[in-house]
């Protein structure tokens, strides 16, 4: 090892330690690059990037060729509205708006317009098989079922959804409203498998009150939703937060014990992202910030919760998701998450406000990422706040590394097949720093995260990308979570 190599190793080790000392976030859910490094889609209100990366209003050539042979998943965000008593539940970093019927109508109209535009856009999507469809955005089940059905019908008229897994996300209580209309709708859809994803967060009454989520459903209501879904052959997934302010480990484990007893097919656990300066209401509360655990305590909580789920017969499938073993070993195993963390094999089409699309052109070593703005409520919708990123070859490698890390590590043979070089050769310094810190182990060509490394995965992703991030920062849009959250004051007040 040369002196410069040794210095680089020290610098990376120092950088990793610094990252591990800071807040652990969930930027892996989007992968490289994070929002601040993306660029404005156009400099004029009517500007819109096509899915191939070119400006729709200009005679620009396509940046990529969309490959019909690649697997495809579709994410639809019907709207960005929710109904908590407290803005964004106090902690949510998703850009939300207060529910208003006229805005809901406008949102669903514009989603239909997007689907119509997709139908007219050419051969890239006509007749393509879709692996999974996800109606998301936080409270997707707040939309009228008739409107969701219309959106499904329009998508099904463009693509083949018969072998797709379809998910509807939302709050528990709305799945039982109008005589379980959402569940009855899901059960009749002509898809391979339907499932629901519920934002439960916690069963603790005091925490729910603090979030303003008392009306969203307690443990008894959630159990009833799961029973009603199971009767109809619908899969169930529940999202839970841990490390809430002033929450004890015993309370966290109690949430999981109840979730396990209820019988969720999948349980997803998320470390709360909260720190001063984040921009959320709770991040401006000294009392809430004072109730947060240290990283060492939060790591201990993660390890205890993970062990509890494994001991109860759940299989860890991603950094946050645990699937019941009998479901995981059957044809009913959940698809969407694993597919969404495989950008080398799977393209993602996003429709609706704040939706994300990613398309990869492997032969040309290029890709495009698009983030639609929230201004789609306007009539007609404008797109000047859309963000996009054009990946060149080095960026494509970082997209792969940051996104696939959510699958609990990197597969060396897969990396070599995609990029023509051994992972250890291309990322020798970073891999050495990660392994030396006890965050991963070498298993042949593979790099597997340790349980501690799973908690610090965001730090690993940041380390891998930091040199390229420094190069890109000045050209980025500079939009941060604070901007998305601050924007909701226009609609929540």
Question: Could you describe the 3D structure shown?
Answer:
With 493 residues, the chain is an alpha/beta fold. The protein folds into 2 domains: 167 residues, no CATH class; 269 residues, 2-Layer Sandwich (Transcription Regulator spoIIAA), CATH 3.30.750.200. Helices cover 39% and strands 17% of the residues. It is built from 19 helices and 18 strands. The strands form 4 sheets. It has a 9-stranded mixed sheet. Strands 1-15-14-13 form a 4-stranded antiparallel sheet. A 3-stranded antiparallel sheet has the order 16-18-17. Strand 6, helix 4 and strand 7 form a beta-alpha-beta unit. Helix 7 runs parallel beside helix 9. The longest helix has 19 residues. It is globular, with a radius of gyration of 22 Å. The N terminus and C terminus are likely disordered.
Tell me about the biggest sheet?
9 strands, mixed
CATH class of the largest domain: Alpha Beta
Strand order of the largest sheet: 10-11-9-8-7-6-5-2-12
* Relative helix content: 25-40%
Shape: globular
Provide the number of structural domains: 2
CATH topology category name of the largest domain: Transcription Regulator spoIIAA
Q: Total strand count, please?
A: 18
Strand content: 15-25%
Which architecture name of the largest domain does CATH use?
2-Layer Sandwich
Give the C-alpha Rg.
22 Å
Compute the number of helices: 19
Low-confidence stretches: 1-7, 480-493
The secondary-structure class comes to: alpha/beta
Compute the separation of the termini in Å.
60 Å
The pLDDT mean sits at: 89
